[in-house]
Each structure stands twice: as C-alpha cells, then as structure tokens.
Amino acid sequence: MAAMKNIVILISGRGSNMEAVVRAAKAEQWPARIAAVISNKADAKGLEFAASHGIPTAVVSNKDYPSREAFDAALQEVIDGFSPDLVVLAGFMRILTPGFVSHYENRMLNIHPSLLPLFPGLHTHEQALASGEKTHGATVHFVTAELDHGPLVDQVSVPVLPGDTADVLAARVLEQEWIMYPRAIRWFVEGRLKVEDGKVNIDRN
Ligand code: NHR
Ligand code: GAR
User: Fold this and answer.
1) For the domain that residue 58 is a member of, what is the CATH number?
2) What's the pTM value of the predicted model, to 2 decimals?
3) Which end of the chain has the least Cβ crowding within 10 Å, N or C?
C-alpha cells in the first residue's frame, strides 16, 4: 500500500469545502490524513469543526505581520511543521507571494468559484450576474504566482436562473464544489493527478 499522504488545509471562514474533504477522506478511506487545518482568521467557523474531529488547528493571523512576505514566511513554517504532501486552499482569502507559491509548486490546489478564465479575483457571483452569464460554476486549479491562473484540474457548471441573487447563485455553485473538490483531492492523494511541464495529467480510470 502506498504511504499515507499529509494534507494541510488553509481556510479563512466557514470551511464548508474543508468539511467536505474531511468527510470524504474518512468515508472513502483515502490513503491520506488531514494533518492540520490552518486559518488566517482566529474566528473562522471552520476551526471548530476541525477541532471537534480531532484535527490539529492553527491560526496565523495576517494582521500580526508587517508585510505579505513576513506573513507568508510564518505561515510556511507552520504548514511545514505538518510535512504536507499537498496544501489545499479552501476559501482561503489572502493572496500568496511568489516565494510561498514556488515552495509548494505542483502540490497546492485551490477551488475558485467561477468558470476560469472568467472572473478571477473576488465577487465572482456578482460579476457573473452583472455580465449576464447563462452558466456559472467553479474551478479547481493548481496555484501559481499569478492569481487564479494556474493549470486547470476540473470544472463544473451550473445554470444561472431568472431571479438569481449572488447568494442564491453562490449556494448553487457551492453544492457542486462539495462534490468536485474532494474528488480532485482524492485523485491527487492516489497519485492519479499530477502536473508535468505545466500540464495537468489525470488518470480518471
Ligand atoms: N495566491 C496566488 N499567488 N495565486 C493564486 O491563484 C491564489 C492565491 C491566494 C488565494 C484563492 C483566490 C480565489 O479562489 C487564492 C488563489 C483572495 C483574493 C484577494 O483578493 C483573491 C483571490 C483568491 C483569494 N484577497 C485580498 C488580499 O489582499 C484580501 C481579501 C480579504 O481578506 O477578504 O489578499 O478567489
Ligand atoms: C467557496 O465558494 C470557495 O470557492 C470560495 O469561497 C467559498 C468558501 O466557502 N473561495 C474563494 O472565494 C477564494 N477567494 P467555505 O469556506 O464554506 O469553503
């Protein structure tokens, strides 16, 4: 049997994607452990779920550091204390510096709530509504220095329906994120998802 892989999950808030990953890893008996859940916000709701499931938690507050570089150095030190094979951004809200990103090259994933390359950055649901999109969705990608531009792993789409508000649309997307993100992370821990020469390879069986 392949060695257990360590997953470190970074959150900033509710942590429902983190929760979906924790539940799937357990239910499907992945060859992986959730080694830690780390937040840049002390009051992130997701920390309570992680702690109640026996997962080590840590807070590295960006407010305690004078620069992005100093915050990222502190965050990297805490993450590396858990010997991660994979770092998972799950609603993590701080832009990461190029040095940090290159340290986790090809082993850091993000889920972004739009059909990239449409709507990188923040307020994606508002942007999709404002531009009159008929479909919207979410994207899993490897993290590179350029925000929301890393190699694509998977995408799901949902319809934009008449009368949608940003909150209603976000909830429709989020429900799909809970399916798609654990699936992609499972591919990674099973050694079926890799980046080679900037290209994503997936063995979907
Ligand atoms: N960092 C790099 N270098 N590359 C990516 O692809 C990243 C990243 C950091 C986070 C997640 C991303 C998303 O999926 C992500 C991808 C935060 C912001 C942002 O503007 C934008 C995109 C994402 C995350 N953050 C503000 C900042 O100044 C702070 C906003 C806040 O605190 O509420 O860092 O959407
Ligand atoms: C999710 O929709 C995720 O895709 C998005 O925020 C939500 C987090 O929910 N991520 C970003 O916007 C990253 N900038 P969660 O905390 O319940 O997983």
Assistant:
1) 3.40.50.170
2) 0.97
3) N
**Nearest residue CA, atom 1 of ligand 2?**
91
Q: Three-state SS string across the chain, please? A: CCCCEEEEEEECCCCHHHHHHHHHHHHCCCCEEEEEEEECCCCCCHHHHHHHCCCCEEECCHHHCCCHHHHHHHHHHHHHCCCCCEEEECCCCCCCCHHHHHHCCCCEEEEECCCCCCCCCCCHHHHHHHCCCCEEEEEEEECCCCCCCCCEEEEEEEECCCCCCHHHHHHHHHHHHHHHHHHHHHHHHCCCEEEECCEEEECCC
Nearest residue by C-alpha to atom 10 in ligand 1: 95
Ligand nearest to the CA of 117: 1
Summarised one tens digit per residue, pLDDT across range 84-100 is 999 999 999 999 999 99
Convert the pLDDT of each residue in 72-130 to its tens digit: 999 999 999 999 999 999 999 999 999 999 999 999 999 999 999 999 999 999 999 99
Residue in the structure block whose two tokens are 């998802």: 193
Total number of domains constituting the chain: 1
Which residue matches tokens 């290159």?
102
Atom of ligand 2 nearest to the CA of 18: 18
198: containing domain: 5-202
